[in-house]
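S1.2 Input.
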Amino acid sequence: MAQEQKESKKRKIIMTDMALEALLKAAKEVAPEILDSLVTSIYKIEKDHQFDKADQRETAVKLIQKIIDDELELRGIGGL
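S1.3 Output.
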């Protein structure tokens, strides 16, 4: 049973990595100026909070907004 759980976890990790890879590829095609690290950070927040109840989504939104605000500030276009 433990071996089955390990294999299931491995498959889930591989699928997750495939999802991130697809997202990164799409981002490069649509908006190549967006850094992979920004896309990856936002993806990880969404992944960590994907099962939050609707009334708890604010946490993920605030974290993502902070990451975006920080990126805009670094590019000198913050405060818009």
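S1.4 Remarks. Residues 2-74 form one domain.
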